[in-house]
Amino acid sequence: SLPAPPTHGSRRESRGRSRESRAAARQLAFSTVGTPDYIAPEVLRKTGYDEKCDWWSLGAIAFEMLCGYPPFYSDDPSVTCRKIVRWREHLSFPQPSRGYGDAAGGAAGAPEITPRSKSFVQGMLCEASDRLGS
Fold first, then answer.
1. Which of 47, 40, 134 has the alpha carbon at shortest distance from 87?
2. Rounded distance, CA 92 to CA 83, Å?
3. How far apart are CA 89 and CA 100, in angstroms?
4. Does the keyword Lipoprotein apply (predicted)?
5. What are phi and psi of 24, to 5 degrees?
6. If residue 81 lies in a helix (H) or strand (E), which one and from where to where?
7. CB–CB of 63/126 below 8 Å?
8. Cβ atoms < 10 Å from Cβ of 48
9. Cα torsion 37, 39, 40, 43: sign
10. 8-state DSSP, 33
11. How many CA atoms, within 13 angstroms, populate the side-chain half-sphere of residue 55?
12. Which letter does DSSP use for residue 132 in this model?
């Protein structure tokens, strides 16, 4: 059998909690949490954000899967954050290395990123209003 549902206080108490939870939810839309490499610029700018920031994170993950490193990587997390905020100046894809993946060259160097893959990533690593899913 299922456990009994929890009992709650008066309606007035419930409404108070409801207001508090709505206020907390609004606060979450301005908080900064996450691994710096994948945080969207609007989150870092603290201008408010919505679900589109998740598309940015997916774009950063896709970039890393294609290139082998995060798109705005730095040893210093604060530098990473500055690069993300100024993403137009810092987003670049590696140029393919000669011999990448062939028998003579091994797996050293950068892979070739197809135009379709590059477009997919750029569709997520852009301004929120222009992102895939917008």
1. 40
2. 11
3. 27
4. no
5. -65, -40
6. helix 77-85
7. no
8. 10
9. negative
10. -
11. 20
12. T
Which residue matches tokens 């899967």? 65
pTM exceeds 0.85 for this model: no
CA distance 108 to 94: 13
Both tokens assigned to 28? 């979450």
* Token pair in block for residue 43: 């989150």
**Residue pair 85/43 in contact by the 8 Å Cβ criterion:** no
**pLDDT, tens digit, for every residue of 5-28?**
555 554 554 455 566 656 555 555
Write the CATH number of the domain with boundaries 37-93+110-134.
1.10.510.10
Amino acid identity of residue 55, one-letter, is W
Kindly state the tokens that stand for 75: 């040893």
Q: Would you list the DSSP string of 113-125?
A: PPHHHHHHHHTTS
- Give the domain ranges of the chain: 37-93+110-134
pLDDT, tens only, 33-92: 668 999 999 999 999 999 999 999 999 999 999 999 999 999 999 999 999 999 999 999
pLDDT of residue 7: 56
Length of the chain: 134
